[in-house]
Amino acid sequence: MELGSRLKEARQAKGLSQEEIESSTKIQQKYLQAMEENNFEFLPGKFYTRAFIREYASAVGLDPEEVMNEHENELPAVDERSAAVYPRSKKTEVRAAAGSGSSRSTSRILPAVITGVLVVLIAFIVYFFTQQITTTDETNPADEGPQDEVVISEDKNGKQDDKKASDDEASEASGDSENGSSGEDTGEPTAEVELEQEGSGDFPEHTYNVKGASDKKVKVELSGTAYLEAAASEDGEGLIDPIPYSEEESPLEIDVSGKDQLYLKTGNAAVTKVTVDGEQLEFPAEVSTQKLLINFN
């Protein structure tokens, strides 16, 4: 019996429709139909074919690993390493090309910047010495007379004024330091993330508890292509379209305001980064297809 026929027969034996399987697995009905017809070329890609089959087999009560082993020759081969690494290498090439163009632009602009700085510096030096000459002329009047008394009086007042100014500056500096230390924003994340349960098996599910998140949004960043699903709970409403997403569509922000849970699946954990309020939620297993159940407290 072919794999597609086996899946269809197991679904019918449990009295389930394709619509019910779509609701429980979040796999679109057109892909379920393609799998039952053994038309695996219609699926989003070879990399996701195996993940879809495991989900379908589990939903109709079959052992996913047994199904995969018995029908291995019917499945398209996929190299997970190349699927995760290729986008990063392309990204490196783009950055290298951008860096080369930036270096050429800098070499043209740098002489003009240096010339401008020198002009400003010369103007400042001329202005400084001009002010010094003017100040010296004003403090040495030509009229003779009781000049000593006037000079002594000015010196005393000057010393008192200088002392007062120094005290004021020290007081202001102390006040600024205290204000700075008391009002400084550390910029550290406010959310507390705890891995409550680490999943196992070929399609593991990991449970996280998140406390004190100031921003009820989950950010998903991709460094390659990954199939993603997100729902308010395991059987809840879908929050994004269950399709493959590329690096160009990253990051995705999922609004979970007013929700207690988020159920997130990825078909390529190696290129998927999930954060809540700046805190990262890791995929601890070594397999590509993984799930996260996030509880917000």
**Main beta sheet: strand number and arrangement?**
6 strands, mixed
Any idea what the shape is? Answer: elongated
Low-confidence segments: 80-98, 143-159, 177-185
| Helix-strand topology string | HHHHHHHEEEEEEEEEE
Main structural class: alpha+beta
Radius of gyration: 35 Å
Question: Helix tally?
Answer: 7
Strand content: 15-25%
Enumerate the strands of the largest sheet in spatial order, edge to edge or round the barrel: 1-2-10-7-4-5
What portion of residues is helical?
40-55%
Number of strands: 10
How far is it from the N-terminal to the C-terminal residue, by CA? 48 Å
What would the average pLDDT be, to the nearest integer? 78
Protein name: Helix-turn-helix domain-containing protein
Pfam families: HTH_25
InterPro entries: Bact_Cytoskel_RodZ, Cro/C1-type_HTH, Lambda_DNA-bd_dom_sf
Keywords: Membrane, Transmembrane, Transmembrane helix
Structure described in brief:
This is Helix-turn-helix domain-containing protein. 48% of the residues lie in helices and 18% in strands.
